[in-house]
Each structure stands twice: as C-alpha cells, then as structure tokens.
Amino acid sequence: MRRLRALAAAAALAIAFLGLAGCTTPATDVPDVTVTGEPGEAPTITYLTPLQVTTTHTEQIWPGTGPALVNGKAVLIDFWLEDATDASLVKESYSTKPTALLLTEVDLGKDLFKTLQGQKVGARLLQISPGSGSGATDYPTVTVIDVLPTRASGEPVPPVPDLPAVTLDSSGAPSLTPTGTDPPGTLVARPLIRGTGEQVQADDTVTVQYTGFAWTTGESFDSTWSRTGLPVSFSLQDVQAWSEGLVDQPVGSQVMLVVPPTYALGITQSEEMAGQTVVYVVDILDTGHPSASAG
Known about the structure:
Blueprint: H1 13-18, E1 34-36, E2 44-46, E3 57-62, E4 74-83, E5 88-92, E6 99-102, H2 105-108, H3 110-116, E7 124-129, E8 141-148, E9 155-156, E10 165-168, E11 174-177, E12 188-194, E13 205-214, E14 220-223, H4 224-227, E15 232-235, H5 240-246, E16 254-259, E17 278-288, H6 290-294
Antiparallel strand pairs: 1-2, 3-7, 4-5, 4-6, 4-8, 7-8, 9-12, 10-11, 12-16, 13-14, 13-15, 13-17, 16-17
C-alpha cells in the first residue's frame, strides 16, 4: 500500500475522533488489518479496500513498558490516520510533531479515550472505526497510535557542585535549590538525565516539558507542568539559547540550561526576569526535522 506523508495540523486529531462512536467489534467480525513498522517510525498499514467497518475495533500491536496512563493527565501520541475506503492518508504526526492532550473523553473523543485507557507508555495501538455520519468523518478510518513519554526517561547523570540541585516530584516536575553563588557568565547546558533517543538538530521542532527558575531564588516563573500539564512543541530556530544548549542532546534526556541575561527568554516572556540569569530544566520528549519532511 502506498504510504503518503503530508504536513497536517496535529491538533485536528481530536476532531477526527469526536464523532466516531461505537462499541468493540465481536471477535467474529474483526477487520483484516496488518500493521508493520519499527518503534519511533511511521507504520505501514495493509488491508483490502474498501474496508467494511460496522463497529469500532481496537487492538494492541505491542504493549508499552513505561508508566501507565492516568485519566485526566497528559498523554502524548503520534498517530497515522487513513480513510479506510481507499487507504488514503487523512493526517499524521510523525513528520511534524506529536499531539499532547489530556486523557479525558472530552479531549480525545469517546473511542480514542477508550483505546488509550489502561495502556502504558511505549504501546502501539490500532483503532478501526466506522464513519460517524456527523460530517467530521463520514468514512471509516484506520488509525495507528503510538504512546510517547511525557517525562524524561534515561540514565541519571551525577550532579555538578557549582550548579543548582534539581529534585523531581512523582510526576516528574522539577524544583530547584539555588547555590547561593554568582551565576556563570556564559550559557551552560548540563544533562541531568541522559536519554537514548534521536539527537536534536539545530533547526528541529522539539516537544518538551520545562520549568524556568530564577537563579538567585530558585523560584519558578514558568512551567508546563503547572500551567497545563501538557508538553509543548516549538522550533529551536525561535529560541537561541535553547538551540545552542539542546543541540545534539538525545530524546529522553533532561537538560539544565543556565541562561545569562544576554539571551532573550524566547518562549517564556517574563518582564520580572528581564536582566536576570534563569535556569531551565527541560525534558526532551520528541524531535522532528521539518526541513527533511519538506524535501
């Protein structure tokens, strides 16, 4: 089957699922769909078209080995969604950025919420749904969903005495203990957890969790963990300090960035922090290469 890649708004994923109501297909009526591909890569889906779908069917292609998903908390997914009448691609996130949503029926829609409940990070899932007839998706769909981590997951790196100490709570959110010393005059990038994923490139779009702290007090002035709980994605080209500090760091890492006031804060505009040295603790969850996708 021909695999198509197209840049699409990943946020439209929830809309595609909202109208897909149904119940689990009985074992005697399971559509014949085969999913192949390696973890971290877009899947290849094979089936005869048009696929006859009367009720929603879900299947675990492989189980996750990471933390269990928690209702009401953040979930980060990559997805590949096809029109099952002709196997054409409707939208996907592998060439752009993953989708971060809360694990609620309101955010995900009835079927996707059920598909993700009880799963663990690292799982690959298949969902086959009939058309809703509501206008959102009037055609049957075949979707593969990969569940990604929402926090750094690698090997801890020994701390450095002259940098602030970082403590993580049970969710992975950091807090900072200041050193009480003068800050460095240049940008510092120090891994706290070293991941094993793909290395970040300078023009990538990264998906992260982060908290920004004041060097002097250790107080937080901005945090994805407390603001929404959802990871965010942005182009490193837009933030000089992050581009310099995160380049070559592998996905799965947690990195401390000590940013002197000569750098703009970038994604976190805070008048109160102007002229101060700030410390970011950044969990790198995903990285994408938009220039490669465009080519």
